[in-house]
Amino acid sequence: MIRSWSTWPLRVRLVVTMTVLFAAVLGAIGVASAALLHENLMANLNNQVQDTFMRAAGPGGKDHFMVGPGLAQDAVGVVLDQNGTAQMNGRSDYVTRTLTAGQIAALAAVPADGAFHDITVPGLGAYRALSDPAQGPGSPADSRVVVALPEAHVGETVSELIVTEAVLGVAGVILVGFVGFGLIRVSLRPLDRVAATAARISMLPLHEGEVGRLNRVPAQDTDPRTESGLVGASLNRMIDHVSAALEARHASETRVRQFVADASHELRTPLASIKGYAELTRRSRESVPPDAAYALGRVESEATRMTALVEDLLLLARLDAGRPLEREPVDLAPLVVDAVRDAHAAVPDHRWEVRLPEDAAAEVVGDENRLRQVLVNLLANAGKHTPAGTTVTASLTCEDRWAVLAVADDGPGIPQELLPTVFERFARGDGSRSRKAGSTGLGLAIVAAVVASHGGQVWVTSEPGETVFTVRLPLETSALPAVAVAATS
Ligand SMILES: Nc1ncnc2c1ncn2[C@@H]1O[C@H](COP(=O)(O)OP(=O)(O)O)[C@@H](O)[C@H]1O
Ligand SMILES: [Mg+2]
Predict the structure, then answer these.
(1) pTM for this structure?
(2) 60-83 pLDDT, tens digit each
(3) CATH superfamily of 328-474
């Protein structure tokens, strides 16, 4: 199917338009010149016919019809008496030759009106004929003369012209097409470069982080006196605006992060004081009435909860800032053992199990403290969001180029509606149990951020009786290029 004209590339449309117009003009010139030539040659022929008419009888009188000097070759003629019967006929061919009956009849049929007529003489072809009632010179009284000259060379000359014009025209159209295509391509090349610049920018991840300097259109393509330069210059202006906007966004993001980090940091000390004083006052039992002791207990536990929140916020703000991680080899096995032991101590009413690889060492490159945080958060969740008696299994395996860490429990699972957003900040189950346990909703967000900054992945599957968090980190041996880690800040 032919696509609609407006969807064709501009260069094709330009070339097609140009060549079609050129061909049309050439055609018009050709037709006009052929018509003009034909008209001219016909006028010429008419003169010759007229001339032949005058000379037909020749100097020798009626016996020498069609033999006079200056007669055009192949001129034919007849002399008719008043009954229309041919008296003489002939064809000038250096020697006069008689015409056949059919040829004579064709000539005799020419009306005697003094005008030129196109006729066909049998055996000879197209002729231009003239018959005049006025007597030809030297012809008998009451007779009339008809003479005719062949039109063949008029037709030949005109067709020769047409053929020449057609050959030259086709060659010209082809030439114009090629040269035009080349010219247009060269002149549209700057536009291609402008488009390439736009395409490159459109592929950049502009939605987050620091974008850095955007590639602008090269100066050679930004001359506003040309159309493509105008586009290039406009694009550059737009790129500058976008750059400025992105920088502003990044600066404001950085400010917010810095603010959160600073605020969290500043809150730590007063929170520790509140907690400390509340505890101190509560302990001095004699002076505190039971109501106040209860209130102080609440202050203390809320301060503890707030401390946890502030610590998490601070950690997240630091992860967001994309500060360079420690990059040293970390053996995950002892990390798992320690973390499970701690979890066991904190939540003794659960069953804790560890499965480690027997052969391979699961060594990854990264920040030990942050990786420990991942384990602590996952194990804390498995202890906190499940009832007593739940079995929690932490396992470590090596698969291909990955260290795979899984924390599984047979608790009630994560609510279905929470599951898709469970790694988001402040996403948490609304169960009173989790609130009581000092839930912040930031634990899994931290896990996700740490894992991502190590070039790994984390995901969860959960149904009642089986909840598994799986973390995949690139093994040290997989020689992950440093940029991959840095890029996922
Ligand atoms: N092992 C688990 N079993 C059931 N629910 C879980 C488990 N782990 C996480 N959750 C749910 O996911 C929510 C988000 O977890 P998290 O980000 O660590 O926040 P927090 O633990 O502070 O509530 C929790 O509030 C809880 O509802
Ligand atoms: Mg948690």
Answers:
(1) 0.62
(2) 455 667 776 777 788 898 888 877
(3) Histidine kinase-like ATPase, C-terminal domain (3.30.565.10)
